[in-house]
Amino acid sequence: GKHRPPPATVGKEKPCPVHAGSQAGSTMRRARRMVHLLALCRISRAVQKRLPGVKVKYLFLMWLGILLGSWVLYMHYSSYSELCRGHICQMIICDRYKKGIISGSACKDLCEENKLQFQQCLSSSPVNQVYGGVWRGKEVIIKCGVEDAFKTDLNLESLPRRDLVLFDKPTRGTSMEEFKEMLLTFLKASLGDQQSLGNLVTRIISMADINQDKKVSLAEAKSIWALLQLNEFLLIVSLHEKEHTARLLGFCGDLYITEKVPYHSLHSVKMPPFLKAVLPSMVVRSLNRWFAPAWSKRAEITIGLLEFVEEIFHGTYGSFYICDADLGNIGHNEKYDFKMVNLRKVVTEMTLKDFYKGRHCEHNADCTHGKDCMATCDKLAKQCNTELIQPNLAKICGLLQEYLLYGAPTDFRDELQKHLQTCMKLNGLASQMEVHHSLLLNNIKTILWKKISHTKYS
């Protein structure tokens, strides 16, 4: 007889059920519906055969990736409300200004004329409020030093109690000579007994005198005194001469404004911390190399960095130590002039001495200030010594090993690497510091300058 096609089945499985249409419907409509259902049935069976493997191999990994990505984004943006409270900072500052507690060159523009505006949030900690902003049409960085106000819920009624502590000095009736003596005593305790501190006092008094009437009001004196308690502001004032730090533009109370450093990382592009945490180290290194300036420009920035290291080693106002040697704290401007972007991790010699004085220890690691300032531990006395194991120059040479050798001229690379490796072995003992420090630093500066001045790299 005639050959009949086999029933529509897949393997030995039962055929997909087909529900009958309305008896009143036409035969053509029933036929089209059956064809569609049979086609869908075959597709679904083919997918079902492969689905267990897909679930195990791909769907779980996809779900895990989405979960991890969502968690990273949640952690990043959920902290935004804690990190970025510019409106609260402005409210507190302007409340103090209107009450006559504080003063400053930026107060009127911030609180009355709206010429100083907060924009991009750059804060990395709730107590260190940092913002990109605009002041009279120019891009600036705004740093709000109102730390205590962010540790508790905002309550304007409690602000007077905080002001009594933060702006408690100088008191009413303090003469100008007494205020100068206050400043000199504070600077000696912070920077050491330097002969040049008298000049620094004069500069601070001039900064405090907003209207330049040769007098300092109580509000002006309270504002400059509160600012000096902030480590970064003290260092900006102390290290202003060679312009390796961001230039101070103005202040209001303990809020201060600096110039914006266009490139706030040596790699020109600073990767967000949450992205850096999830990317493999090789990918991060490749991206850093990709976005880094040309080698001659990196050499030019390095010379400025070495000048800064030289400046803070037995400088005009004492010695300073870099306690977080990280490329993310170092930047440059459009002309490739070096700028120290973050001075919060740079501390004075007196700060370190106070930290180590009488500090109990079992190992050298117990004598660590910040990330990179480590002193030796006297295991007999079980107390920290005050001499650091590694000076600033050795830390910086360690950073430059990767930054400067990549892309260096082939006829120059070996010589440069030799100098950097010798530099990295420099220790912090006083017997080595005076001669070896200056010799190594000048050698590296000289060979870099010769290479970019007298060759095609100039």
Q: pLDDT below 50 for ≥5 consecutive residues: which ranges?
A: 8-25, 147-164
Average pLDDT score: 80
* Largest sheet, strands/sense/barrel: 5 strands, antiparallel
Gross morphology = globular
Count the E strands.
Answer: 12
Structural class: alpha+beta
CA-atom Rg in angstroms: 32 Å
How big a fraction of the residues is strand?
5-15%
Helix content percent band: 40-55%
| Major sheet strand order | 1-2-3-5-4
What does this structure look like?
By secondary structure, the chain is α+β, with helices and mostly antiparallel strands. It has 16 helices and 12 strands. β2 and β3 form a beta hairpin. The longest helix has 52 residues, at 27-78. The radius of gyration is 32 Å and the shape is globular. The model is unreliable at 8-25 and 147-164 (pLDDT under 50).
Give a quick rundown of the structure:
It is built from 16 helices and twelve strands. It is of the alpha+beta class. The strands form four sheets. It has a five-stranded antiparallel sheet, sandwiched between helices. A three-stranded antiparallel sheet has the order 10-11-12, covered by helices on one side. It has a two-stranded antiparallel sheet with strand order 6-9.
Topology of this protein?
Blueprint (H helix, E strand, L loop, with lengths): L26 H52 L1 H4 L2 H13 L8 H5 L4 E6 L7 E7 L2 E7 L14 H8 L9 H16 L5 H12 L9 H11 L2 H8 L9 E5 L2 E5 L13 H6 L2 H11 L3 H18 L7 E3 L7 E3 L5 E3 L5 E3 H8 L11 E2 L3 E6 L4 E6 L3 H14 L4 H15 L5 H24 L5
Antiparallel strand pairs: 1-2, 2-3, 3-5, 4-5, 6-9, 7-8, 10-11, 11-12
Helix pairs in contact: 6-7, 7-8, 12-14, 12-16, 14-15, 15-16
